[in-house]
Amino acid sequence: MWFIYKLTLRQLSGRWRLLITLLLTALPVVMGVIRSLVEDGPPDAEFQTGVVGMLVGVIMPLVVLAIASAAFTNEIEDRTLANLTLTPIPRWKIIVPKLLGAISVAAPMIATSALIAGYFIYEGDVKAILSTTVGAVVGVVLYSTVFTWAGIMTTRAIGFGLLYVFLWEVMLSGIVPGVRFLSLNHYSVSVMRAIDERRFTGEDMLSSGVAVGASFGVLVIFLLLSIRRLRRMDVP
Amino acid sequence: MTPRSSAHAFVGSSEAVIRVENVSRWFGNVVSVSDVSFEIKPGITGLLGPNGAGKTTLLRMITGLAAVSDGRVTVFGETVRNNSSLYSRIGVMSEHETVYQFMKGRDFVKMMGQLRGVKDIDNAVDKAINLVDLSDAAYRPMGTYSRGMRQRMRLAATLVHEPDILLLDEPLNGADPRQREHFKNLLLSYAASGKTVVLSSHILEEVEQLADTVLLIVNGKLAASGDFHAIRAALNDRPYHVRVISDSPRDLASALVKLKSVDAVNVDPDGAIVVQSRNVRDLQIELPRLAKALAVRVRRVEPLDDSLESVFGYLVDR
């Protein structure tokens, strides 16, 4: 598995992909820094919610989409996936290192963004910063699992991912109450609340038990779906 | 007897190591391979057919990369699809030349060896790279390789675990004459050690120089199979059509029809002569002599059915 993990890290660390995702993850930090420079006093709750909402609801899914969907899409388009499938290793030993590779590239960027942005918007409140960072990393893991599966299902994973993020996570989960039970964004924010109840409040929050259970369910289901797909697909 | 030990019984024996039984594959309404059955024994087997005949699809089903729509493929007596343990004994080189551009050639071969559980990996890698005569370029990124070098390094990666079966799809694409010769010798010595080599090609001469047995695939069906020389003899026996344009077609046609090498002669309304012959070699010698003797100026001579498709078509219709 180590060889596939290393290979995936190298494949996902293309210059342009990293540059674009770094620029995206820098946005919350820039907003926090500008706010601290131009306004006196602590940031209000609306600003804090807005920045964290942007990081977790938009930037994180887009960054993970750009990275995780490429874990398989690139190999399928380059026709190099057969190098891995024509070896005597079980399919899960291809899927797991690919997923870990995607998480390893995306998580440090998102975590760093959450840490630094959290420092500015929560004025050094360690618990709030920690909860934001942990929740964001949980989100990275969940989105990576879904988008890695999307990458193996279709070469149009980016299109699928964009529709999913903006239609389901951004629009529908904000309008239709029940959707939050099937929203990765809500799982992520609910994990933040489980660590710091002072900052993350709201009627539509899931309980920590439901959030952790649902997150685990998403992880297992999409891992199994990816393994099943790799077993059944015609490898180009 | 465990499956593994029974599988080992195939190597170097005359038993079939690959069995394709009534295999079909269709994509929507398009039938790519239709009810094909054959067995492959140790030695070199050529999968021959024109482009688009279904060779690659068939080879992909034998490797397990593609599923069969109907029928069964077994390798060493085991179903190959979703049977990853078999890949420690199979080496596959697809027709696609894509490689990890950023990776050094040696690292690629080493990774492929490690993924297949090769012991004493460094020696195995050196041996495989030496076999393809690419030691000098082993530490260069593969993105800097020529097409032929990429093919050779891919072959090294295919050979690194010394598979019992080698499946190669159009392996000589992009190779220069020297590399082709090297490649051919390599495959011949590999097969001589009791291993099984299956290579697909649309080039008759390529298969002729390598394969003991030929499977001829045309339009997704097995058109002929067996000893290459018998198939080649059938090919030599087929009638050829040659179009001759001259300044005096009637005189030339009258003389041509008397030649032993000529079966029939027709003069088209546009004045071109179409000669049917089963002995084109003699016709090539006799036609200029005849034209010179008759003082007829021959402007153009062209084969009408020398394409590979027509050759395969002849065998199918026979």
Q: What distinguishing features does this structure have?
A:
heterodimer, A: 236 residues, mainly alpha, 10 helices, B: 318 residues, alpha/beta, Rossmann fold, Alpha-Beta Plaits, six-stranded mixed sheet, four-stranded antiparallel sheet, 11 helices, 36% helix
Describe the structure in brief:
Chain A is built from 10 helices and no strands. Chain A has 236 residues and is mainly alpha-helical. The model of chain A has no long low-confidence stretch (mean pLDDT 92).
Give a verbal description of the structure:
Chain A is mostly helical and 236 residues long. Chain A is 79% helix and 0% strand. Chain A is globular, with a radius of gyration of 18 Å. The two termini of chain A are 21 Å apart. The model of chain A has no long low-confidence stretch (mean pLDDT 92). Helices cover 36% and strands 27% of the residues of chain B. Chain B contains 11 helices and 14 strands. In chain B, α3 runs parallel beside α5 and α4 packs across α5. The model of chain B is unreliable at 1-9 (pLDDT under 50). Chain A binds chain B through residues 3-4, 7, 10-11, 78-80, 82-91, 231-232, 234-235, and chain B through 60, 63-67, 82, 84-88, 90, 92, 94, 96, 98-100, 102-103, 111-112, 114-117, 157.
